[in-house]
Amino acid sequence: MICAEPIPVRTARPAQSRSALARERAALARAALADCRLCAHDCGVNRLEGKAGLCHASAEARVFIAQAEVSDELELVPTFAIALSGCDLRCDFCITGRESWNARAGEILKVGKIAERAVAALADGGRTIMLLGGEPTIHLPTALQIVAALPDDAKLVWKTNAHGSARARALLDGMFDVWLADYKFGSDACAQRLAKVPDYNRVIRENLVWAHEHSELVVRHLLMPGHVECCWRPVAEWLAENLPGVKVNLRSGFWPAWHAARHGELLGTATAGETETAGQIARACGLNLIK
Amino acid sequence: MMQPQKFRGSEGDEARLPKKLDTPRVGSCKTEPLTTELLILPDGRILVHNLTQPFAELLKELNPDCEQISSRATRHSSLRNEFPN
């Protein structure tokens, strides 16, 4: 797979605000939809003319959740979560499969209205604003428009599957305070079988290393039943070796959502034994686990 | 998604498909319902997704000793308006 080259974008001028830069970047991101290579699938379709790539997303973002939540990392909550419909991955166990697999789910996103609600949540005690999906990368123009509409001092979280392209990363540079990135599969074979995504580990690692260098990074891994050795162990070992000290949230709350029943090992939850083993692996690797 | 935690539940409960629970809000946010999804397991554990403050408070009442929930159920001023009258 050949990933798109980054779009040459300016970094912020000394006096330029994040919101002003986001406004410029949003225009660039919108133009990039004419040859969409925002994710590593590198489709190259013209979404401005209604062509659809593997994510099936149009040029207009839709939203299926926008509310204050407390289920994310303790250091990030309460967060005002803005979940955009559609995703470039096809994880059979996706807990929001109905909306993530369908970019036309939810409501048309009105940037001004959503930003107003987010600002109100912050004013009332919210700690962060989180953009997520589905996968927000495929709606980068809208995501950047939202950033442009938010206060420069708002703490922003980019919740991502880390399958973006170098082009997307260039547009995201300096826009979000925290990258909250999923590292789902330690095995490319599992990634192909469960999420229909090739070359998974190379792409995710490239994104994680970049995110670690450009922002605060929290890596999540959802422990899947039957995938401790093939997926969690290599993820833990790679993080320990390549991103020592990075914050890691090992999540053990897998449930068999969406099309999980297509895979026999995903019919239930992780066992107590698997959860214990996963914790032992994390401790042996010296990971910086957070809740 | 929260980590699984053991809550008091009826023995023999069947694991159910995730339920979406909409909580009506009052005040300025009354037109925006909140959504939390939960899965109740046969052993009494409850898994939750999109946990909101009102639901965290409810789960805390079910099991005050659950640290995972208690740490998130601390009342934030932002969520005062999310509790129904």
Question: What can you tell me about this protein's structure?
Answer:
The complex is a heterodimer of chains A (291) and B (85). Chain A is of the alpha/beta class. Chain A has a single domain (18-289), classed as TIM Barrel. Chain A contains nine helices and nine strands. Chain A has helices at residues 18-32, 97-100, 111-123, 140-148, 166-172, 188-195, 200-214, 228-242, 272-285, and strands at residues 62-69, 79-84, 107-108, 128-132, 156-160, 178-182, 216-222, 247-251, 288-289. The longest helix of chain A has 15 residues, at 18-32. Chain B is built from two helices and four strands. Chain B has a domain at 37-85. The longest helix of chain B has 10 residues, at 53-62. Chain B is 20% helix and 22% strand. Classes of the chains: A alpha/beta (291), B alpha+beta (85). Chain A binds chain B through residues 65-71, 74, 77-78, 81, 95, 117, 120-121, 124-126, 222, 251-255, 257, 269, 291, and chain B through 1-4, 18, 28, 32, 34-35, 37, 39, 41, 47-53, 56, 68, 71-73, 76-82.
Write a compact overview of the structure shown:
Chain A has 291 residues and is of the alpha/beta class. Chain A has helices at residues 18-32, 97-100, 111-123, 140-148, 166-172, 188-195, 200-214, 228-242, 272-285; strands at 62-69, 79-84, 107-108, 128-132, 156-160, 178-182, 216-222, 247-251, 288-289.
Stretches with pLDDT under 50, minimum 5 residues of chain A: none
| Proportion of beta-strand residues of chain A | 15-25%
Radius of gyration of chain A: 18 Å
CATH class of chain A: Alpha Beta
Annotation, overall tally of beta strands of chain A: 9
Strands ordered across the widest β-sheet of chain A: 3-1-2-4-5-6-7-8-9
Most extensive interface, chain pair and sizes: A-B, 27 and 31 residues
Q: Percent range for helical residues of chain B? A: 10-25%
Radius of gyration of chain B: 13 Å
Mean pLDDT of chain B: 68
Distance between the termini of chain B: 28 Å
Q: Label the structural class of chain B.
A: alpha+beta
On the 0 to 100 scale, the average pLDDT of chain A is 96
